[in-house]
Amino acid sequence: QIFNQHNAEAPNFEQVFHRMAQMEPNLDHDVSWFLLPSYWAKMVVGLISFLCFANSYDGDFVFDDSEAIINNKDLRAETPLGDLWYHDFWGSKLSSNTSHKSYRPLTVLTFRMNYLFAGGFYPVGFHVINIILHCTISVLMVDVFSILLGGLQFSNKGRRLNLAPKSSLLAALLFAVHPVHTECVAGIVGRADLLCALFFLLSFLGYCKAFRENKEGHTFSVFWVVVSVVLGAIAMLCKEQGITILGLNAVFDALVINKINLLELIRKLLYKDKSLENAGLLRKGLLFRMTLLMCGGAGILYIRWRIMGTGPPAFTEVDNPASFADSLFVRAINYNYYYSLNAWLLLCPWWLCFDWSMGCIPLIKSVSDWRIIALAALWFCLIGLICQALCSEDSHKRRILTLGLGFLIIPFLPASNLFFRVGFVVAERVIYLPSIGYCILFTYGFSLLSKQAKKKKILAVAVLGILLINVMRCALRSSQWRSEEQLFRSALSVCPLNAKVHYNVGKNLADKGNQSAAIKYYREAVRLNPKYVHAMNNLGNILKERNELHEAEELLSLAVQIQPDFAAAWMNLGIVQNSLRRFEEAEQSYWTAIKHRKKYPDCYYNLGRLYADLNRHIDALNAWRNATVLKPEHSLAWNNMIILLDNTGNLAQAEAVGREALELIPNDHSLMFSLANVLGKSQKYKESEALFLKAIKANPNAASYHGNLAVLYHRWGNLDLAKKHYEVSLKLDPMAPGTKENYNLLRRKLEQLQKKGG
To answer: What is the pTM assigned to this prediction?
Structure first.
């Protein structure tokens, strides 16, 4: 039955095929599932994976996308390409103390290409690439699972055989529709995991190609082993997990190519058996290939270490509270609990959340905590599987279970906290690759159940139902990732104790102008995490805008007390103190902010406003000049310089500053307006008129633009045009200061002219 999909081969292939298939039990024999030709299987998997996530194509930039893409200068054409190799994923220098050391230059390069080809930050192109990548990976999984579940066998013509077409199709479908993958596909920053997975799989398939010409088991291709190492390096340059493929290739080589029995090997090593050379270590070039893989991995890690430096990543306690626990027991218990949660997300991906930090998962501090049961269940299952993988007399069973456990555990190791602290508690994106191992174990379990079941079709329908539920769950979760509002609100029911969830809901509401609702969520975030300085800062900002200055000052003072280098909170505290007319304290707060963030144009702008209020005009101009040096497009700083120079009678200097500003920001109508006022006072009426008209074209509903243009015409003697623009200004804003008086003066003058003319 299995052979039917390969019947295009020559007749002698059938003998070869059956001889190899009889070497070990066939996983497909008892599986009641669809049997499709290879190309049809790949088309079905690709199509279904597309349907799962297609509705995310027109989503917004959400959550971490802002920092990794919109605010990442490495995407801009003006940033040299070479800088990508010395910056982390977020655009910070790897040498910086604040860098997370996430070194993914190839992923950032694809973001940059998206940005350049689209001509800006248009999320559709970013999302489409992510969907295509997941579909491609899912299609490749058909080949990968056919090797992992059916073994690596070739025909006489060197064509790889699929000895488990039904099982590999089922496993690939399970992978394609797993809802835990939604974060990687629908969240644009998940591109790192997708690219890593793509080259991870290509490295594995490349390693398998090294044995294509291996007819008698004595030869292999060094070229393809080296290619596999290079592809593993590329995977690591997309995301750190990529390096683990080299270890998995070694496991695959030992178990599948050399058919080593691990338990037997351990026994011989312990008892120093003289027949150790027959255990497979020195046969088929295994030792040489292991040396290539180890040298390649060591070289890759050394180069990465040289680039990123020796400093550890900078994370805070709220990111990963267990890693900051003083007790080794508490750390170990909670790490294992996190592992059980990851396992549960693979088994039952219903409770999904964009962020699991900040109190979402309270620490286990005692063995009396009922959640210890989850740890016991996890290790009971793992130990059972490991025992079967090592001790079973069935070599086929040993191989599949060991490969399943290997693909489940080894890619997860970089996120396990065992080697270094990571910046999260649970992250759905990091189980994209480990889900391969889950799919292997699920499929193998299904085959065992099928073997025992009398009504196999009912079992097949049940699995089909699981796939259908997962497809619907993927579509629902993808729709939640389309906008920040839906994404953040979806987390409230999953992680109600997560302060960051409430913070993000509040921030989203504040951005939409709903300050009252935002305050409620910010207060809850601070209640859940009394040291949440970012929530305090944002809440203080809103209270400042609502003129609740004393509470705002309390919150911001507490924020800088908790985190003394929080520059934004120092600046906002300065603004509040300025509003309370405590000018010396405000000035000190501004300078403290600048001390902690050297390049802080907004702080220089606010410092300039303080100096202007104190009539320290030179200091104000210097502060605003600093703001424009650090941020040449800082329109408010340019405008304030022009206005201050204008008000102090320095028209020539004001004109020079205005022209300089418009060269840098040529389409800013507020700058056109300010410079037009200066030119009008300098009696350069024609040029002033042109700028006023250009500003009005850009912003036709600004009453002051029409009112000041009317004043220009009034001075210039163009009274009819002056009358027209006075009337437009009063229509837009009947209470416009000075406009009504000027209009009445003009009307009286026109009446006098009419009388004289009469």
So the answer is: 0.84
